[in-house]
Amino acid sequence: MTNNKWNLTDLNVLCAVVKTGSFVGASEELGMAQASVSKRIADLEKSLGVLLFRRTTRSVQITSEGILAHTRALQVLDAATRLQQDVSSARIRPSGKLRISTSLRLGRNYIAPILSKLAKEYPELDIWLELVDRRVDMLNEGYDIDIRAGDVTEPHLISHKVVKSQRMLCASKAYLERKGTPKTLDDLALHDCLLFRQRDQMLGVWRLQNNKEESAVRITGGMGSNHADVIHEWAEQGLGIAMLSDWDIHDKLAKGKLVRILPDYTQQTDIWAVTPSRLTYSATLKLCVEYLIESLQSGPHALPVSLD
Q: Is this model's pTM higher than 0.70 or not?
């Protein structure tokens, strides 16, 4: 049985002896002591269980086993060189599969166009984007990045702050003209509230902050949905009060399609890029996360919120 404890240095020594035709020449080429060259060849012969060179006081002659070992050593060293080059290249040019999850509207309106640009810059990436209005299990479902709103409570995940954001109460002018404008949180009990179960939101309960005080408000309404687009449409049609993210209703508030109510009350829901491991472990993951964060903070697809 052979003892394969040799390493790449041993193979380099073997090739240097063959190339120069002597242990002295190999020691000069490699910058090693002649005794170290001799010992490495002897250890390699012991490990392989064969005689690689026949030594005399005047010459070193390679054996048939030595010729075979030299051929294989060249192949191994070449493979090692290509491995180093490929890995180094991957650190510069991200490649491979990238699975990303996020919510429906955030994904369609912001993440998707950003990923389109990313794919054009780095065509070696294989990107899959999953749009779901629920909290995904990153490890069991195999996601590399989750762009989410709200606190990251899983202790095994790594969170990267994207932007500071909040949800706010809003309704259409038509609804407020018909039903009146709530003046206090208690007034919400008298209104039609559009029920929407977002990723981290309890159905039928809105948790709102006024400065540092939090209030849990139980709300009721005759209409609800698990789809954000439906809630937006119903709110614009005057069917009730909704609690929606600032980045998602920025344009609608500016155009008067929706009106903010009870502006002193908000729900803090910062946007995070979440990963199952630290970015230092993967150059590709690090580049993609930083690309997403930078694009969401500034540029044509930036979220219309105040940066923190």
A: no
